[in-house]
UniProtKB/TrEMBL annotation:
Keywords: Signal
Keyword Signal: yes
Superkingdom field: Bacteria
Signal peptide: 1-25
Domain DUF4398, residue spans: 33-100
The protein's name in its UniProt record: DUF4398 domain-containing protein
InterPro entries registered for this protein in UniProt: DUF4398
Transmembrane segments: none
Record's keyword annotation contains Signal: yes
C-alpha cells in the first residue's frame, strides 16, 4: 500500500493550526515595561532633570501617564509602546542632566586651577 497525501493531511493541518494559534497568543501584560519606565522617570528626577532637561522629562512623564491609562483601558500593546517611549525619554533626560552637572563641575575645577596658577605666578601664598 502506498502512502498518499491524504494520510498526511490531518497531521499537517494540526501542525499549521497549532502554529497559527501560537503566533496569535498575546504577550504578557506590560507590567515590567511600566515599572522600568517609572524607575527611569524617578532616576531622571533624582538627577535634577527638571532643571537641565525639562522638555525630555515632561515627555517621559506624559508618555508614562498615557501608558498607565492605556494599560487600565486594556490596550496593552499601546501601553507597552508608550512605556518603552517613556523610559527612553527619561533616560535621555537623565543623560542630559548628568552631562550638564558634570560639565558645570568641570568648569568649576578649571576655574580653580586657573586661580591657583595665577596665584603661583603672582607669588600669592594665601
Amino acid at each position: 500500500m502506498t502512502a498518499s497525501f491524504a494520510h498526511f493531511r490531518f497531521p499537517l493541518l494540526a501542525l499549521v493550526l497549532a502554529s497559527a494559534l501560537s503566533a496569535c497568543a498575546s504577550l504578557p501584560p506590560p507590567t515590567s515595561e511600566l515599572s522600568a519606565a517609572q524607575q527611569a522617570v524617578t532616576r531622571a528626577d533624582g538627577a535634577d532633570a527638571d532643571q537641565y532637561a525639562p522638555q525630555d522629562l515632561a515627555a517621559a512623564r506624559s508618555a508614562l501617564g498615557r501608558a498607565q491609562g492605556a494599560m487600565s483601558s486594556g490596550r496593552e500593546d499601546e501601553a507597552r509602546r508608550l512605556a518603552v517611549s517613556a523610559a527612553a525619554d527619561a533616560d535621555l533626560a537623565w543623560a542630559k542632566s548628568r552631562d550638564a552637572v558634570i560639565n558645570a563641575e568641570l568648569a568649576q575645577r578649571r576655574a580653580e586651577i586657573a586661580d591657583l596658577r595665577r596665584r603661583l605666578q603672582n607669588g600669592d601664598a594665601r
